[in-house]
Amino acid sequence: MTQEDNSGKLVWFFAGAAIGASIALLYAPKSGEETRRILKEKALEGKDVLAEGSRDILDKSRELYEKGKGLADDAAEMFERGRKLAQG
């Protein structure tokens, strides 16, 4: 399993945990004001976790793009050398 797969799964795990916690709070025997405060805090925590995971995925995507671009450039250069060799 690659690191990109792991970071994506981690983001979804935390998103699911935040949603589950929010639903559990809705059924908790607390006052409406306290429940809303807790939901707001949990939503902000979840937002931060998702933002962090998104940044990680974006960074990994950029790395893969750069590697792919480098490979494509190398392949084009090799093709050009082979063409020149074939022409003599």
Quick one: how many beta strands?
0
Give Rg in angstroms. Answer: 24 Å
Q: Which structural class is indicated by helix and strand composition?
A: mainly alpha
The shape, in one word, is rod-shaped
Instruction: Name the poorly predicted regions.
Output: none
Tally of alpha and pi helices: 2
For the record, the count of structural domains works out to 1
Helix content: over 70%
Distance between the terminal alpha carbons, to the nearest Å?
A: 46 Å
Give the topology string: H per helix, E per strand: HH
For the sheet with most strands, the description reads: none
Q: How much is the average pLDDT?
A: 82
Strand content: under 5%
Folded structure, characterized:
91% of the residues lie in helices and 0% in strands. It has one domain (3-87). It is rod-shaped, with a radius of gyration of 24 Å. Helix 1 (3-26) runs antiparallel to helix 2. The relative contact order is 0.11. The protein has 88 residues and is mostly helical.
